[in-house]
Design goal:
The protein is α/β, with parallel strands linked by helices. It has a single domain (2-161, 194-222, 263-279), classed as Rossmann fold (3-Layer(aba) Sandwich). Helices cover 41% and strands 18% of the residues. It has helices spanning 11-20, 48-58, 72-77, 79-99, 131-146, 170-179, 197-210, 226-237, 267-272, 280-292, and strands at 2-6, 25-30, 39-42, 62-65, 103-109, 150-155, 158-159, 184-187, 191-192, 195-196, 214-217, 224-225, 244-247. Strand 1, helix 1 (11-20) and strand 2 form a beta-alpha-beta unit. The radius of gyration is 18 Å and the shape is globular. The two termini are 28 Å apart.
Length: 293
């Protein structure tokens, strides 16, 4: 297949390109940081005339739209920018996918939920409490409304073995701090479904191959607090968990509110996919293997 991947220098996009570049023709769209795999396509997605031309030249069979403005506090401060990147670009890609008969996968987030319930299913009603979640929800709605063949794939706190697009993910940040013997504040009252990037990439590859439509929660399978995640990471990597400080959300100096429990129920993905969501032990063991290689 010919697959256009946006955000191909980011954590998920790069994981997908690395995993599938030998099996498919991957066109890796990036803006500032060179992608590690696939055919590089330097492009500012907000320049719609150029995007239209590039899309028309490539004519992909499928689009994996992994690019987004994910800085939650920046989205709160720069609402117009958040909507431009997370909604306007998504709507344009959905329109191009429809025009060129491409299957579109839009990578969304657990932050479309308000966090009052946890273990959200695909049938639960979104209710974002910050502008990042709102802008991503609007991207979901644009994908559903415009693209004729599409899947919305929600994930939660994606982590993996390499810094990507100039950013260090939560797991690598934790390991770096703990290996330097620095104390780390980890939240005991925010629950998530941490997602290993390579596992998410495998699941997305199957979604694209089978053209599965609708909404899928594609996080990994374990609901944990950020503190519990840090503890489990210490266990697997032999780090000192006594360096972890219990922290609470009310103590954080955030601009935007965060959901307290945005964990995702992955029963649908577990039933449907051959590539299953991993439990946290298996995911961290795989991360250790990936870092070793």
């Amino acid at each position: 297949m010919k697959i256009l991947v946006t955000g191909a220098s980011g954590l998920l996009g790069s994981s997908f390109a690395i995993k599938f570049a030998s099996r498919h023709e991957i066109h890796s769209v990036y803006n500032k940081h060179d992608p590690p795999a696939g055919i590089p396509v330097k492009l500012d997605l907000t320049e719609f005339d150029v995007l239209d031309e590039v899309f028309g030249n490539i004519r992909p069979d499928a689009v994996l739209h992994a690019a987004a403005l994910t800085d939650v506090d920046l989205c709160e401060r720069e609402k117009e920018l958040a909507m431009k990147v997370n909604y306007d670009v998504t709507a344009r890609l959905a329109s191009l996918s429809k025009k060129h008969n491409a299957f579109m996968v839009y990578v969304s987030t657990d932050y479309v939920f308000d966090g009052t319930k946890g273990l959200y299913t695909e049938d639960d009603e979104p209710n974002p409490i910050n502008h990042y979640g709102y802008s991503k929800l609007k991207g979901e709605e644009a994908t559903e409304r415009i693209a004729e063949q599409s899947c919305i794939a929600r994930a939660s706190v994606i982590y993996g073995p390499r810094p990507s697009a100039g950013k260090v993910n939560f797991a690598l940040w934790l390991m770096e701090k703990l290996r330097r013997r620095e104390r780390v504040n980890a939240l005991i009252d925010q629950h998530i479904s941490p997602t290993l990037s390579s596992d998410l990439a495998e699941m997305l590859g199957e979604v694209i191959q089978r053209k599965l439509t609708g909404i899928y929660h594609l996080s990994d399978a374990t609901r944990v607090s950020r503190y519990e995640f840090a503890q489990k990471l210490c266990d697997v990597f032999g780090l000192d968990s006594s360096l972890l400080n219990s922290a609470r959300m009310k103590d954080m100096n955030w601009t935007a509110r965060r959901p307290m429990d945005s964990s995702l129920d992955v029963s649908k993905a577990t039933r449907t996919l051959s590539a299953k969501p991993l439990n946290i032990g298996d995911a961290l063991s795989r991360l250790k293997e990936e870092l070793g290689s």
